[in-house]
Amino acid sequence: MSAHFQHQDWMGTERARTTYNGAVEGTFTSLPFGDGLTTTSGTDKDASHFAMLDHDYEDETDHAQFRQYSEAQGHWLSPDPYSGSYDRSNPQSFNRYVYALNNPLSNVDPSERECVWDDGSYDASDDPDTGSSGGCAAAGGSYVPPNIFESVEGTNPGDWSPNASATIAADWTTPAVTVSASLCPGPVASTLTGAAVMGTIGPPAAGAQALAIMTGHVVTLGYDATAGLNFGTFGGSVHGGYSLAFDSQQNIALISTTGAGGGGFSGDAGISLQLGILQDTSVLSIEPMSSMPSLSFAAGDGTQVQGGIGLDGSTNAGIGLGAGFSASANLDVSQVTILACGPG
To answer: Cα(316)–Cα(278) distance, rounded to whole angstroms?
Structure first.
């Protein structure tokens, strides 16, 4: 057996291979997103080329630890579930399938993640129970790419630590009460309830599920009713409604929300069907009981448009029936009931 050495560029893409004594066995070129791989000299004896990913020649995709990458399309085949990678100053970060922010000449896209706990301890990225977004979220952890984790904390990807760290906890976690996976209905009940929800609501539920998979975030579908009392141009209002919540792991929950607020009003009632996107990446990580300040608006006589945004960045928009215009600051209280848990 003899030694062979790979020579890689900044992304980990193999450009040459040599023997132990420096003889060149092969050289390779490719385009920035891994497409157009060409053996320019010698022979190709290695399936790992682009960014050190294992290439599958049957379906022409590359295997990362948690996602598949398509060189032909230049993006991942499933969304990035890590919400911490959003950057409001960079629109590319809102594309959850994009590879290296669409700039592989400068950036590397991490493919592994750490599960960080509220006390600052963390599991290995290949942990069989928490080494995925769904498993980590269901257990109550925060899912973080190891390359980012390493650059901030100075540890190595794949490392784990049972030791509490206030610094790591402050960097990656936020205080929250997490719904335990033990609150999931059994597999039979989950299957029956999930089928009933998808079958009863039909295409809207399927669309919400697809949007959850595409964005990597929890998507809600439901209704909200508002009633207000005017005092000149100002007044107060109360509102309430129910929503079904879907995530990419096929978990489903029912969220009931009530709230009250005050602001500028020229109307007094409205009801709308609403679609929302939460900051949570899993239904199982939503707080079972929570309160959240939010801003909302409604406009229109007859057909009315409504929308809102929570302090955590969660958004909703809807259309329904109402009268007048309102813009208010609210305090909303929500309660979550898990209806069905996915097979994962």
So the answer is: 8
> By the 8 A CB rule, do 71 and 60 touch?
yes
Q: How many CB atoms lie within 10 A of CB 24?
A: 12
Token representation of residue 157: 């990807």
Distance CA 218, CA 209 (A): 9
| Residues 265-288: tens digit of each pLDDT | 666 677 888 899 988 888 877 777
**Cα(220)–Cα(334) distance, integer angstroms:** 13
Q: What are the sequence ranges of the domains in the chain?
A: 1-109, 114-175, 187-340
Span 41-91, pLDDT tens digits: 888 777 777 877 888 888 888 887 667 888 888 888 888 755 555 666 677
| Contacts for 199 with CB less than 8 Å, ≥ 6 apart | none
Determine the Cα–Cα distance for residues 149 and 147; give it in Å rounded to an integer. Answer: 5
Query: For residue 178, what is the DSSP state?
Result: P
Displacement of CA 199 from its chain's centroid (Å): 25
- What is residue 180's DSSP assignment? P
